[in-house]
Amino acid sequence: MPLSSAAGALLVPLALLPIAPPAAQGPSGAPGPAGASGAAGAPGTGRVVDTRFDRADGFVPARAVTHAPDLVPYGSQVRVTVGRAAGHTSVTLELAGVAGAHEFPAHVHTGRCGADPASSGPHYQQVAGSDAADNEVRMTVHTAPDGSGTASAAVPWEFRPDEAHSLVLHAGTPAGPHAAADRAACVDVDF
């Protein structure tokens, strides 16, 4: 085959080449479940968001942002799993590479993550203004010395459509230069 024919054979449009998605990994480095990149599962089953924390003002918008890199370093990993069944919702939060021996309160918020920590809005409440224990999704992640930790919460309701968008990690204790209620990091989930 002449050189010009061989070179022409290599010029295949990239859009025609099959591309397999990379295998998802959880915070422990183990393979994650199908759809772990953030895709929604079948209707009524839930959602998994598996990503790394990054800057809020980066060139590519980040799915998870950190506002306190001393507590939640850039590149630390987060996985949020949301399950739905029979009108109930469960939320599991897994962290890896964050501050060790730390306590992070976490809540579902109404807004999306942004450069301003307040972008995530207030806590999502199923019944506005209610103090009932199961009116919000609340959990606390107690991290091991290596910076890994898991927490879960379950509530007897499902989120209203387009009203719950993020999971926020508050600075918690010990927080160093941060107030315990400061927003240390945020993950866009779109519950």
Number of helices: 1
The helical percent reads under 10%
Annotation, overall tally of beta strands: 10
Distance between the ends = 57 Å
Description:
The protein has about 190 residues and is mainly beta. The protein has one helix and ten strands. Strands 1, 2, 3, 4, 5, 6, 7, 8, 9 and 10 form a ten-stranded mixed sheet that branches. The longest helix is centred in the first third of the chain and has 7 residues, at about 5-10. It is globular.
Any descriptors?
191 residues, mainly beta, 10-stranded mixed beta sheet, 10 strands, disordered N terminus
Give a summary of the structure in a few sentences.
This protein has 191 residues and is mostly beta strands. The chain has 1 helix and 10 strands; from the N terminus they run αββββββββββ.
List the helices and strands and how they pair.
Blueprint: H1 3-9, E1 37-40, E2 46-54, E3 64-66, E4 77-85, E5 88-96, E6 103-109, E7 138-142, E8 149-155, E9 166-170, E10 183-188
Parallel strand pairs: 2-3
Antiparallel strand pairs: 1-2, 2-4, 3-10, 4-5, 5-8, 6-7, 6-9, 9-10
